[in-house]
């Protein structure tokens, strides 16, 4: 069983850690399709023995510019974890590190365009806080505000969630258990046979920038490479 959920942020030629080159993304999706690797939504991946689910965090405008044409061409789905308070602006939310690269965000019209073409709009909170710092009732309010806005604007209530910055603890997990079908982390790892729905691992696309890593992401060699990278992240304290 080899299944992976892969995390992207921006599709751009910039050198920052949030960016993945658009031509690399197009090449990789085409390669997976040609190899017969299923690219499926998360609910389908849970029922599959092999496959990949694509996710985009935050809601950068490059999703509509560079991801949607590729997804539409190959007729494959993906999930967008949207930070609703940043729609129409940029990613300079209050908790963003000052050194983080700035990216333009989708407008609501662009979010709707993506949804109309099959992108599944999910929740990434309203203001992108570290949820561990909030009182329990504020965690629920933060997520409810995002979910309500997505439902009002797009007509579909999110069923999946991604923790901002990948930060969570037992209290945060408990607060969100009943709200979503699954909550996604930034913890590096393949999807296990029976994943914990409150802390689903993903593979950061940053480690798939090289052709070899893309070609071997589901092979034993690729799994060993990404496992090593995940171990290094863990030792550094990076989720």
Keywords:
seven-stranded parallel sheet, 239 residues, two-stranded parallel sheet
List the helices and strands and how they pair.
Blueprint: E1 2-8, E2 10-11, E3 19-20, H1 22-35, H2 42-46, E4 50-58, H3 62-74, E5 79-82, H4 108-116, E6 120-123, H5 136-154, E7 160-162, H6 170-176, E8 182-188, E9 200-204, H7 211-215, H8 220-235
Parallel strand pairs: 1-4, 1-9, 2-3, 4-5, 5-6, 7-8, 8-9
Helix pairs in contact: 1-3, 5-6
Give structural notes.
It contains eight helices and nine strands. By secondary structure, the protein is α/β, with parallel strands linked by helices. The protein has one domain: TIM Barrel, CATH 3.20.20.370. The strands form two sheets. A seven-stranded parallel beta sheet has the order 6-5-4-1-9-8-7. It has a two-stranded parallel ribbon with strand order 2-3. Strand 4 (50-58), helix 3 (62-74) and strand 5 (79-82) form a beta-alpha-beta unit. The protein is globular, with a radius of gyration of 17 Å. The model has no long low-confidence stretch (mean pLDDT 94).
